[in-house]
Structures are given as structure tokens and as C-alpha cells.
TrEMBL record:
GO molecular function terms listed in the Swiss-Prot or TrEMBL record: DNA-binding transcription factor activity; transcription cis-regulatory region binding
DNA-binding residues (ranges): 37-56
Keyword Oxidoreductase included in the entry's annotation: no
Protein keywords: DNA-binding, Transcription, Transcription regulation
Stated name of the protein: TetR family transcriptional regulator
PANTHER family, alphabetized: HTH-TYPE TRANSCRIPTIONAL REGULATOR RUTR (PTHR30055), MYCOFACTOCIN BIOSYNTHESIS TRANSCRIPTIONAL REGULATOR MFTR-RELATED (PTHR30055:SF238)
Species whose genome carries this gene: Pseudoclavibacter terrae
Amino acid sequence: MSNPALSLRERNRIDCWHAIHDAAADLTIARGLDETTIDAISERAGVSRRTFFNYFPSKEDAVLGMQAPTLPEGALDDFRAGEGDSFGRTMRLMLAVLDSAIPDHDDFPRRRTLADQHPVLEERLRRHISAAEDIVLSILTEQGGDSSTESLPDGIESAKALLSLAATILRFTSRNDPQGVLADREAAINHSIDIFRKAISEAL
């Protein structure tokens, strides 16, 4: 469903993004990744090669429907001013950064299936997630900001542990409850957090 608040130019941009991604994914399912070329994707989507590269830097990214993660506008302010404990704020920050890399969460089942079938796509997916984690870690440790935690190794290690736990729970949720992610992502993640809390509590 289109968003009436979007400009015509933005709606056209989104439609073109989806056309290229759908063409790339559908061709890969039908022909395999090796036989799916950028020329074939462009022809199926009704765009030029130049337009293809305006949206995706590689065939693999087009198939996955992903792009390099960034820090969304307002995400840092939300993290710093956010309510709740450090873990909850870290989870929300991680989700915001991941959302910048994966514009279409409704396509999760197809993306997951393709990544499972093609190791090169799985590796590409992991690279984008790793890049998202790097962005979040740099914020948690305040590196490159007004202050640094280089002299506080315990603080850096705590930040790494916090990020690792958040990333693990997100991966667990996507594998354990893919339909829940589609229906209500926040509820699915909260359920996974409860599972981890119970498991850790019972293990200690």
C-alpha cells in the first residue's frame, strides 16, 4: 500500500527499487545465482544497467534486497535520550541500523531462503549485518565522538558483550520465529529476550 505522505518521486524510487529486487530474486530462484546476470535483471525490471547501479552496487545485493547500513537520522538522539536499560536501548539502535540496510522486512522469508541456498548470499548478508554491528559498537564506545573509552577497557568489553547479546537474540528470533517477525517483530523479539533470560537464569 502506498504512503500518501510520500512524494511522487519518492514513490517512483521505491517502486523501482522493488522492481529490481523482485526481478533479481525471481530470476535467481528460477535460474540459479550464477545464471542470473545484471543484464537479465535489468531487462526483467525494465530499467537500464545504469539505473540498476543507481540502486544496487552488486547483483548479490539486488537479490537480497539489501544495501550498506547507515545510522538513520534521529537514531542516535533516540538512543541517547531513550528510556529503559542499556540492553533495550541497544536493541532498538541495532534494529534502526538494520532497517536502513533492509528496507523491506516483508520479504524476509524469500531473503532467508535464498541466503540458505547460496553461500555467497549468506556471506553477503553477514557482511551487511557485521557492518551494522560496527556502527552500533562505535556508538556504544563513543569512538569518534566527543569522548573516547580507549582508557576504559572494561567499558569497551561490556559494550562488545552487550552488542553480541543483542545480535545473537536478533539472529535467534529470525531463525526461531520467522512468521512472528513478519506479524509483530517487537513481540517476537521480546519473546526471544524472555527465552534468553530464562535460559541464562537456569544456567547460572
